[in-house]
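User: Structure please.
Assistant: Input sequence and predicted structure:
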Amino acid sequence: MTETAFPEGFVTTRLLAERLRPHHRDEVRRMHRDGAVMALLGGVRSEDQTAAYFARNLRHCDDHGFGLWILRERSGEGGGDPIGRAVLRHVLVEDVDELEVGYAFYQPYWGRGLATEVATACVGFAERALNLSSVVGVTSPANRASQQVLGNVGLVYEREFTQDGERSSLFRRRFR
């Protein structure tokens, strides 16, 4: 896998990632309305929830220089339509500031190893460029596919906790 220009954007073997920008609002809205994508991510989001999520993630990118990326396949001119998103962002876990790696893809792209590919890039960036001691993944206890991806990139189950009123599973990869 080759990475270029993290965090503004990056390239993996099969993916192009571009940093979240204001013109991505409709894409985030489309993903938040997709029942299959959102089934294990807290459910379909309202317009107000999407607007708050979008604003929070734009601000994170501005404040930290990284955060959420819109993903496209590398094949074809310009990568084609968006197929998912990746995140590497600060999140509070029981009042502790952690750096979370995450991903979501539209259903036609499930089961192809793309989540593992993009999570590998994000974890690598966290380790090399941010000099962190660890990175976390947060998922629903029922989301076995996401747990598999987190394991594939070296995160290990740590514990369950409550986040936004929902039970969540916390995974962690320590770098030192």
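The longest strand covers residues 82-93.
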